[in-house]
Amino acid sequence: MLTFEQLLETWDGETAVVHRDPESGAWIFVCLHSTRLGPAGGGTRMKVYDTPAEALQDAMRLSGAMTRKLAVAGLPFGGGKAVIAVAEIPSGEERRALLLRYADLVASLGGSYRTSSDMNTGEADMDVIGERTEFVFGRSVEAGGSGSPAPPTATGVYHGIRASLSHVYGSDDLDGRSVVVQGAGGVGSPLAEQLASAGATVFVADIDPGRAETLAARVGGAAVPADRVLDTACDVFAPCAVGGVLSVATVPRLRCRIVAGSANNQLAEPEAADLLQGRGILYAPDYVINAGGAIAIVGLEQLGWGRSELDTALAQIGDTLRQIYERADAEGISTAAAADALAEQRLKVG
Ligand code: NAD
Predict the structure, then answer these.
(1) What residue owns the CA closest to ligand 1's atom 1?
(2) Ligand 1 atom at shortest distance from the alpha carbon of 290
């Protein structure tokens, strides 16, 4: 494991704020990877790490991913991320007090970093943070926020799947197409519903088989055992559960033409993107296709959008993917590389 010094020397970001919370013993890292296009935006992750350095590294890596995600989404924001590294996930008064102290730290950054929820933090936590600072997205509707980002994320993935079908088959028609949705959660459920409404045959897998069966029944589809998703023949595999599903071990097993889903960090290793390209499987880069939630909270809470502007912006995820696919074809590179190149380009000219 690298030391703090080594991490800071090798990181390509702008500013890392390091704060030790004496009351709880937590370490808090706020990484502003880039403010080139606007204030650094990105969620707050609360997690138990083996070492503080590991938490700092996570915040650095995740903040870089936010820079690319927000640049490609065309939002006037840079990339940031915060990690609260705790000995164990707190609850009750202890959690509230920690979040208020964290909120004071966010406030002290004067708006150069704006937070939202991430792993182990949610709407209620954003409401607490909102008691101390205005620089927070994703509060509850009651507290002035825009509500859950999962439904707009699903809508963005839906547009992304249509754009991917169009690229592979020459038509974005879902009628007669089959989609395996991995994860019947906040994103997977509304996605399965939209796909089924448009005529697709939907297969659902979840580590909770009851959840998969309930959703499959609701959309007139079928449940698939969680350990069979890779081997199920389909047009589209939509990972909407966990990261790391695409690796040198799993890509050879896929029986689909397209991978397009909401899960973050789908590529377990960069080589998986080249393997997908080699197998002729179209991969919708995760941070492009899953940006709908970020687009919604920024648009509705910060840019003054209404419903129709949001709908237009979510549909644009499909247009952005088309652009990425064309670039990948023209340059003979993977779609993941083409997405990174688009992000670089936007960061240069922005
Ligand atoms: P969720 O927790 O609501 O649902 C995840 C579902 O996946 C659960 O039903 C869970 O039982 C299931 N699951 C977990 N491991 C599984 C496995 N190995 N195989 C099959 N099913 C499994 O989460 P969500 O909000 O729907 O998010 C899904 C994914 O999309 C996550 O990777 C998340 O990071 C990503 N994402 C979500 C949003 C959002 O707005 N919610 C935005 C961008 C990205």
Answers:
(1) 185
(2) 43
The ligand 1 atom at the shortest distance from the C-alpha of residue 261 is: 30
Cα–Cα distance, 160 to 239 (Å, whole number):
13
Residue ranges of alpha helices (H) inside 73-201 are 92-108, 123-129, 150-169, 188-197
Which residues are bridge partners to 239 per DSSP? 182
Segment holding 17, helix H or strand E: strand 15-21
| Beta bridge pairs of residue 19 | 28
Residue nearest ligand 1's atom 4 by CA: 185
| Predicted local confidence at residue 1, as pLDDT | 82
pTM of the full structure: 0.94
Provide the angle, in degrees to the nearest 10, between the axes of the packed helices 52-72 and 335-349: 80
Closest Cα to atom 40 of ligand 1: 150
Q: Which candidate in 47, 69, 81, 348 is catalytic? A: 81
The confidence band for 350, taking pLDDT boundaries of 50, 70 and 90, is low
| Token duo for residue 283 | 């991969």
Q: How many CA atoms within 13 Å lie on the side-chain side of 248?
A: 3
Residue type, 317: I
How far away, in angstroms, is 238 Cα from ligand 1 center? 11
Per-residue tokens: 295: 């687009």
320 C-alpha to center of ligand 1: Å?
23
Question: What are the tens digits of pLDDT across the range 31-85?
Answer: 999 999 999 999 999 999 999 999 999 999 999 999 999 999 999 999 999 999 9
Q: Decide: 120 and 46 in contact? Cβ < 8 Å.
A: yes
Output the residue whose Cα is nearest ligand 1's atom 35: 263
Q: Which two tokens stand for residue 296?
A: 């919604």
Catalytic annotation present for 47: no
Residues in contact with ligand 1 by the CB-under-6-Å rule are: 149-150, 153, 182-188, 205-208, 211, 226, 240-243, 262-264, 290, 293
What confidence tens digit (pLDDT) does each residue in 232-271 have? 999 999 999 999 999 999 999 999 999 999 999 899 999 9
